[in-house]
Amino acid sequence: MLQFSKIKSGRFAIPIIYTVVGIFWILLSDRALISIEPHVHSGLYNLLNSAKGIIYVYISAILLGLLVTRFEKRSLKSEKQYRDIYMSNPYPIWFFDPGDYKFMSLNDASCFYYGYTRAELLSMTIFDIHPKEDSAALKQFFLRANSEKYEWGRWCHLKKGGEPIYVNISSLLTTFNEKPAIMVLVIDITEKVAFEQHLHKSQVNLESTLSSISDSYFTVDFNWVISSANSNFYERTGTSADVIGKKVKSVFPDADESVIFQAGTRAMEERLPTKIDAYYARLSKWLHVACYPTEEGIAVFFTDITERKEKEAEIMRQNEQLRRVSWLNSHEIRKPVASIISLVELLKISGSDHETAQILEKMQKCTADLDNLLHQINNEASRL
To answer: Cys-Cys with 101: which of 105, 125, 326, 333 at CB 3.0–4.6 Å?
Structure first.
């Protein structure tokens, strides 16, 4: 059964139309002559009977001419569409022979992108625009090409002056001028690759910076899965890179009780930076924890501040001793001093040796108390 698309394309249209018209002409012309035979002269009838073949040839010639003209116009339209799609395409497109890898045809964009003339490219093979080290991989890539699906790949190409460009290519096994060919469409992604390389370099620099800082650093996603960490994190927590991809609770079973988890939960839920100083029993350390929201979850920085906390505790202890010394100076010393002053006044007005002896005895006791206080103050000051 003939396919409609083939009939419409003209491959079978002209023979079918010519056959149908011929059948109708034979049937109708004979009936017409039979119907007019009784009404015309025999000579005229014989003339018309002889002329029907000539008329058929004439009508057929006109019809064939119209059909040929119509299909020529359609062919010209198809050729223009072909040129628009192929030759005028802004992306390089070419066909090459899968046997010897030579270019068979290419569009204008191919010449523009690679800097060669059409004649130069048609004298070259596809290996001439690739680095030599890619030849083996390139052959394997095009061996997978077939007529049912496109093969996609990223490659480095070389311009005429040797300048490298990065491209995505798609290839399809087809025919060109009735010969097997592989069609290739090229999309320049040099800027994209340059951006990716810059991004990768920035990522490497960031990771290097994070690894060199004194803070421990790690990131988690919204499911509390660890996505990255620096070397200080592994060293401080006694873990390794195996924790990447694992949930925090599976690595640290006591996470719910940790200050890091509590601060991280607050930052995750409120989407605000969170900072806290607290003692973490698992590490037996005081930690300063800073959590920052990210698009994927949170980033957590924590550093050991145990030494600082110990110094702060020592300073508080010393301050307490200073307050005690100050109290002794301002309150306890005043008592024996005030007593001595009073006894001195009494000694001045003493009227007998017995009173004087009692006053001197009390003064001696007050002096001893004062001496004890001074020794106590000196001891407190020495501990400072």
So the answer is: 125
Residue 372 near residue 306, CB atoms below 8 Å:
no
Residue 281: which residues within 8 A CB-CB, separation 6 or more?
A: 254, 257
Q: What is the end-to-end Cα distance of the chain in Å, rounded?
A: 110
pLDDT digits (tens, 9 = 90+) for 171-225: 888 888 889 999 999 999 999 988 888 877 776 766 666 666 778 889 999 999 9
- The region of weakest confidence among 214-218, 226-230, 250-254, 356-360 is 356-360
Cα angle 116, 118, 123 (rounded to 5 degrees) comes to 90
Strand extents, DSSP E, the chain: 93-96, 103-106, 151-158, 164-176, 179-188, 216-221, 226-229, 274-280, 285-293, 297-304
Average pLDDT over every residue of 109-121:
93
CA dist 86 and 155 (Å) reads 22
- Quick one: how far is CA 379 from the chain centroid? 67
